From TrEMBL:
Coiled coil: none annotated. The keyword Transit peptide does not apply. PANTHER family: MONOOXYGENASE (PTHR46865:SF2), OXIDOREDUCTASE-RELATED (PTHR46865). It comes from the Bacteria. One of its GO terms (molecular function) is monooxygenase activity. Residues 6-339 form the FAD-binding domain. Keywords: Monooxygenase, Oxidoreductase. This is FAD-binding monooxygenase. InterPro entries: FAD-bd, FAD/NAD-bd_sf, FAD_aromatic-hydroxylase. It holds the Pfam family FAD_binding_3. Transmembrane segments: none annotated. The keyword Oxidoreductase applies. Signal peptide: none annotated.
Amino acid sequence: MERKKRVIVSGASIAGPTLGFWLAKYGFDVTIVERSKALRMGGQNLDIRGAGRAIVRMMGIEQDILAANTGEIGLQFVNRNNEVKAAFPTDGASSFTSEAEILRGDLVNILYNSTKNEVKYVFGKYITAVQQDTNTVEVTFSDDTKEVFDLLIAADGVRSTTRTLLFGEEPEIKFVGLYNAWYTIPKTARDTRWARWYTAPGSRVMLLRPDNHGTTRASFSFLSDDKSYQNLSNDDQKKILKDKLSGAGWEEARLMKEMETNDDVYFDGISQVHAPRWFNGRAGMIGDAAYCPTPLTGMGTTLAIVGAYLLAGELSRHATHEEAFAAYEKRMRPFVEKIQKLPPGVPWLAHPKSKFGVAVVNTVAGIVASRPIKAIGKLFSKKEKDVTKDDIELPEYK
């Protein structure tokens, strides 16, 4: 009986467990190592589109994902008095809300439950060194233990430390000039099943979204060319956030107050990852670690799922990892490059500096959301459930 090839995957978020699902299905022995002591259940809304939706359907978890929908019924643009200036319901042609809208933590939990019996999970450890030879990859973990595998795949996010071990500073982390803070706050009477978007002068945006856990997901973003904020301590980052929030209006006081006591504020510069190569010998990377497109595209989760499916499939199809990696990159890189091309004016147009710019954003949103425009959009739109490809072929492996 042929020995199963052993694969170590770094990261138990979305790309890692999806890769583990398919590799285990194709007969690989998979271990997923996660730095956190348990599943990281926090995070904001994600949506799964096109080819990603087709893959979760093949995995048998589409209905679980739809059942865990956040309950959001659409997006409203509001002014500082909470008056609605434009509304985009879920069933509209221009909707910002996906049918498969789900909290990151809920999706992580679904993926874990669908793989925990076939994939070995190791929590509370991370990779600190990698040594390759022709036939194996020796991995050193944070507890100084070592283990030998056939392949190593980094799937541990945009700030991947495993990527650095494999590629050093070769990949470019391209900051787009936007910072975002996300955190979960208590629900109040003003919160409804609508997501609410508020644009403030000074290139600032607040977004409050409902969830299916009885709380509200808050987001605050602002434009800045200062890259140093990413390297500050949590306390110093909160000081920056409070300074930027000051004078914004609308739910400013609420977000400021909740930030003081919230220990789960995630603050980061929005960046894309551009890597000239995704593989180095018997090791490689997928998902945000390899090609983060930024949340601005709305396609990060889909890229992670598609990339995992294709890599597992190519490894199952080819006799050598070199052939599999080359075939994978040929399929995946054009798709990634297309998605990473941000539309003109993003993110600046949505973050105007002046009161006049804010008025323009709300006016344009109102026009786009108007009945005549929505009626025209419906004539030319497809229902999301009918879309399966997103300009990339999904071969049927094995």
